[in-house]
Write a structure and sequence with these properties.
104 residues, mainly alpha
């Protein structure tokens, strides 16, 4: 359920940014400027947007790597616990089998 909420939030955030980008593009195109001024402004803003997008992508990549590392740690920890519990159960079973043979 929490995954569903976070995925919905990410979707809404993506649509928000898309809308903001489209609004900014419409504002640039509908302003009373000459074509050359508008093209220069679009070049500048596009370059800024590309730089910010690269920074966000790098940050997202680092965070994804951190989440992956944490996931691996948790998986390893739980796997180790499971193996320990399995071995303990196996030892207990052997002990009970030994007791049953001695009692027979």
């Amino acid at each position: 359920m929490a995954d569903e909420r976070s995925s919905d939030a990410a979707g809404y955030l993506g649509w928000f940014f898309l809308g903001a980008l489209m609004g900014a593009a419409a504002a640039l195109l509908l302003t009373p400027r000459t074509g050359e001024e508008t093209r220069e402004l679009i070049r500048e803003k596009g370059g800024d947007f590309a730089k910010r997008a690269q920074e966000y992508a790098k940050d997202a990549q680092v965070r994804a790597g951190e989440f992956l590392d944490k996931g691996r740690e948790v998986l390893e920890e739980h796997s180790q616990r499971l193996l320990t519990a399995f071995e303990a159960g196996k030892d207990a079973m052997k002990e009970e089998i030994g007791k049953a043979r001695r009692d027979s």
